[in-house]
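The aim of this short unit is practical: by the end, you should be able to scan a pair of folded records and say something sensible about each. We start with the first protein, listed as its amino acid sequence and then its structure tokens.
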Amino acid sequence: MRNPNINKIHIILELLGYIMLMLSLAYAIVMINTIEGEIPTHYNAYGEVDAYGSPTSLLILPITMLSTCLIITACLHFLPARSWNTGFKLNPARENIVLTDFGYMMASMVPEMGLFTMVVTYFFGKEGSIVMGASFALIAAMAVSVIVFFIKAYRDNKVD
């Protein structure tokens, strides 16, 4: 069942995210086969290494984020848009516009997660401060996306 509130921009956002996720996964696989010994796997609040592990731990983030993005995509494409919790009563005359806005909110998370995964996978075991910065940047980007698209949907819901 195709969601009528999805357009080409939604698809492009998702594809961009999945390309970045696949590049991250490919990079992790290459690095697993080239790194010998243990690598840093966790950093404390000061960006200092506080745990080590196998190079196969490079796969954890790309696989986790890929799984998360697949769930977001499944919700976007296969759940009836009317079942999404918008937080406010939909105006029937504006429903399609509002649900498209919520679709943008969901679709924008895929490239955000893809970029985050690329950065963290590349710098994993190299630079703790970059990993910490990327984590904060992802949280900020997702918060901004949610706030911006929620406000847009809320305004679009109002009668002209």
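Turning to the second protein, read its sequence before its tokens, just as you did above.
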Amino acid sequence: MEQNTQTPSNDGEIMVERDEKGRIKPGSILNPGGKPKGIKHLTTLLSESLAEDSGEGSRTYKEEIIAKVIDMAKKGDMRAIELVWDRIEGKATQSIHNINQNIVVSTEAKKAADEAIDEFLQSYSRKKTQAT
């Protein structure tokens, strides 16, 4: 048996209808002041603009920007090099350590982890060499 429960907003208006298990009922308006239908997202507008012909030969704006970043990287611009590298290899991850928590790793576990890392790196190097 379904129960009609409604969640009031801070100003007392009814915003969301929920069933007896607290789930939002189909058709409920979750964000009445949200983006109207038919309005394009900023990312969509930017992608469409970058896909347009730049007027510089037969390149799009996106192709012009890529060519400029690569040219800057070739000239030694470290920010451009970092940008290109991050797009090709992915951004480097950074570990976060809790200094208040002491973790003890046995010598055997450390040795096994080191061996696994060495094996992975050797395998990775072989694959890179075979690919070239």
